[in-house]
Amino acid sequence: MPSISLPSLTRRSLLGGLAATSALVVLHPFAARAQANQAHLRIMETTDIHVHVLPYDYYGDKPNDTMGLARTASLIDSIRAEAGNSMLIDNGDFLQGNPMGDYIAYERGMKEGDQHPIIQAMNVLGYDAGTLGNHEFNYGLDFMFKVLGGAGFPYVCANLAKGMLASDPKQDELFFKPYVILEKQIRDGSGAESPVKVGFIGFVPPQIMVWDAKHLEGKAQTRDIVDAAKAWVPVMKEEGADIIIALSHSGIDGSGMSERMENASLYLAGVNGIDAVFTGHQHLVFPGPKDFEGIAGADAEKGTLMGKPAVMAGFWGSHMGLIDFLLEKDGNGWKIVDFTTEARPIYHRDEDRKVVADVKDKPEVTAAVKEEHEATLAYVRRPVGKTSAPLYSYFALVADDPSVQIVSNAQTWYIKDMLKDGEYRDLPVLSAAAPFKAGGRGGAEYYTDVPAGDIAIKNVADLYLYPNTVQAVLISGEQVRNWLEMSAGMFNQIEPGAKDAPLLNTAFPSYNYDIIDGVTYQIDLSQPTRFDKDGQLVNADAHRIVDLQFEGKPIDPAQKFVVATNNYRAGGGGKFPEIAGDKVIFVAPDTNRDVIVRYIVEQGTINPSADANWSFKPMAGTTAIFESGPKGRTYVADIKGAKIEEAGDGAEGFAKFRLVL
């Protein structure tokens, strides 16, 4: 089945024409060439919307043309117009991810009969089916089911069971139907109409049992994605599905299939009977030129996994995922004879690297959430205290940073208070915190930047993006060292004397770059990484963390430390060596955000200046290059513990900086 794709220039011209007039429609080649007994079917995907209904950055309190389901909705209209027949699905992670989601969950609540704004918007657009992402569980099962009760379309999930798993996947007591087979009337090339049976089966990452254990432990269990598919897909075939589509809130990982794999979409595509895979979770784009090149079994140009059409549509509404099928009558059913795949963006960058919107808001979607949008703005603008210095994260990956410092200050303050009367009261308390807004996939403006003065709730949400809860673990000095060794995977190995070597390992997520406060240390970039991305020891003789001290003395490997962190990390998220649920000694009822708000309220005015407790080990004559937001140029002179210079413009709106080692 060959793959055809329209040139990007043609697509952009089409979008421009559709924005100007609804009269101009260029049909997809399948729609134009379908003959009698042939039909074009287009299936459209949104994924990882994270409550970004509108093109508005609530953290920065300003519009943002790179996001928003209201923008993607306009794209949906134009894309439907190009197609002979179409269906629309969502691939999960729609319920949490910005202050509107938090406002509904924590402030307004969901009474029986209420509609969540993201569901209101999706109902306006006429989705056909959806599945769950891991973030649907962040606010608990009761809240999730109240939200889903308002959906005008079915949700499916084949690997989420109530209680314990049965001996056979088909015997699991599931929370949702594992699949749905929708009968869609389609018009063929001659104009005749007949039904095609399209089956949708959904999957969630099994790791939700770790990430949201506080909501799911004892209530739910997850199955391996591929195992669940192998059990249910033959049943769908038996029930007459002409086409079987996997809605996989799971990314693409070519490192080899493993049990309960988080990013299993490549191997899911290999399951006999699945015809196409819609993916998500990783916030990347497939097909595309850069994110998945070189993975065996994945063709990033054609958009196939194991030879089958697949797509991943970015995040926050940045893209619309499209799989187009040319179908042909096969007896009483239909078979696929050709396909194309595409991830179509809602914006592009001009010659000056500025964002240019390719589509406008869909008014019906904007109107549907007007009341909730205004309430969210009032919610995030409430002052809770003051800061004596600016809070920014432009250099959080390369120097001790005020935006991470304030999180650690609040966590330490909270845990010391919580443990002051218990058995751990005499142990030293450290704090682990990571920069969440550090550019990367989020773009050149995806940084915290709070000026000195009033701090509002929107600023706290900007400092700490996720509704994690505070937890504390009890570990040894040696485990503190290995925690930091794992974090140091953020950086590439650099040869002494190198000039402008690339500093950052772009495959390492910034939310796994933990800075541990309460100790001092240096990072030796001449050393290779000690652990791989899964926390496995790969270079036993390597030690990037040097001069690790507690209270001015070399750390005692056997000494016990309490480390304040979040439920994700304490539960094993990120696969840090020996950091898992068995180390947890305190589970807080409070979110990290709430703790930061309470800390700021108590302090009245905070001083977020970084204490420079870590730095890079000097390497004479060596420099390294990294990218950050161009607004970071304002703060270069203020950085403590590192010498940083401006180094020109980077790609896609970023600025280059030089670290002098």
From TrEMBL:
Keywords: Hydrolase, Metal-binding, Multifunctional enzyme, Nucleotide-binding, Signal. Transmembrane segments: none annotated. It is found in: Cell envelope. Its main location: other. It comes from the Bacteria. InterPro entries: 5'-Nucleotdase_C (IPR008334), 5'-Nucleotdase_C_sf (IPR036907), 5'-Nucleotdase_CS (IPR006146), 5_nucleotidase/apyrase (IPR006179), Calcineurin-like_PHP (IPR004843), CpdB_N (IPR041827), Metallo-depent_PP-like (IPR029052), TAT_signal (IPR006311). Residues 447-577 form the 5'-Nucleotidase C-terminal domain. Residues 41-283 form the Calcineurin-like phosphoesterase domain. Its cofactor is a divalent metal cation. Residues 1-34 form the signal peptide. Belongs to the 5'-nucleotidase family. This is Bifunctional 2',3'-cyclic-nucleotide 2'-phosphodiesterase/3'-nucleotidase.
